[in-house]
Amino acid sequence: MKHILLVLAFICQPVFAFSSFDTLYLVFKGVHFLHADSTPKELVVSEIGMGKTQTEAVENALQLAISKSIGVLIVSDQTIENDRVIRNLAAAYSSGVVNSYTIDSCTKNEYVSCKVTAKVSPWNFIRKLQGDSQTMQVNGDDLLMQHRSAQATMIQRRKIAEYYFSQIRNVGLDAKIREVKILPSNANAKLAIEYEVKWNPDYKKSMIAFLEKLEKDTEGETNQEVYIQWGPTGFFENRVRINTQDPYLRQLMLNYLFAPIEVNIVELGICERFDPPEDVFKIDWYGFRKQKVIEIDSQKLVGIRKLSASTTCK
Questions:
Q1: What residues contact 220, with CB distance under 8 A and at least 6 apart?
Q2: Where are the alpha helices (DSSP H) in the chain?
Q3: Which residue from 24, 79, 181, 192 puts its CA 20 to 30 A from 11's CA?
């Protein structure tokens, strides 16, 4: 039997909360879920699924995408049992949770493997969970519940921030081969490869919207500030100052902002890593274009008509 505890808390701006909002707090089989005004309405998630057929592989990839999206709502400790509960929930409440998806690629060996990019709605999931016939609602407007909701909000803030920042180098940046020249050489083939890295416009737009929301929701006294600027600025343009009020969150954001940038020449299996001189948001501002000259066994070029690049190295 399902046991779901629903707590509706009205918060008056506690220390670790975002700006005033209604918080929906659910507990399902020991797993705590929080949905607040700051929770993204939609998350873009890329996952790889496997199956005997393409249909099965795509369905499995979508289940993984839903599970990852549900993860930003969870504010309790992760355990093996909790993971099982989440997988079951992803399967039970999958209908109507995925707004749309695209099949990026599929390969077939012993099994079919498909990479899928899905737009998932955490809000639709939480509404389905809330609407369960066995949901119990408890009044949570006392100070203890406000304290617990404030703690949960801080945990969720970390999770949402980690989701957005961790995806920058997976889906937020696009690498493109600009030019390939065959240079004079002896036995081995010699290639001059020019490539560039730019932000994916859609992801950058959603990332900036999240940062601006985070800045608004953490405005107040400066505390553990993170400053991010993505273009030439006037008085308040193209920048945010986020008072994280949380050393862990501040360090998490800085780690991702200054992490190395990778460029993978896919067909040749060549990986380049660069330490950015400034944070990753300066890529579009200053430009990021490189040239690499390589020598390679000419036989490895057989059947290759063009080269492609990605921003993740295996």
A1: 243
A2: 54-71, 80-92, 122-130, 143-166, 201-217, 247-257, 282-286
A3: 79
14 is written with which tokens?
């506690």
Give the phi and the psi of residue 180 in degrees, each rounded to 5. -130, 125
Rounded to two decimals, what is the model's pTM? 0.75
Q: Residue length, the chain? A: 314
Burial environment of residue 213 by CB neighbours within 10 A (0 to 12, 13 to 18, 19 or more): middle
Q: Two tokens at 60?
A: 């499995």
Per-residue model confidence (pLDDT) at position 134: 54
d(Cα 83, Cα 102) in Å, to the nearest integer? 26
Task: Report the interhelical angle of 201-217 vs 143-166 (nearest 10°).
Answer: 150
Q: What is the DSSP string of 255-272?
A: HHHTSPEEEEEGGGTEEE
- A 10 A CB-CB count for 126 gives 20
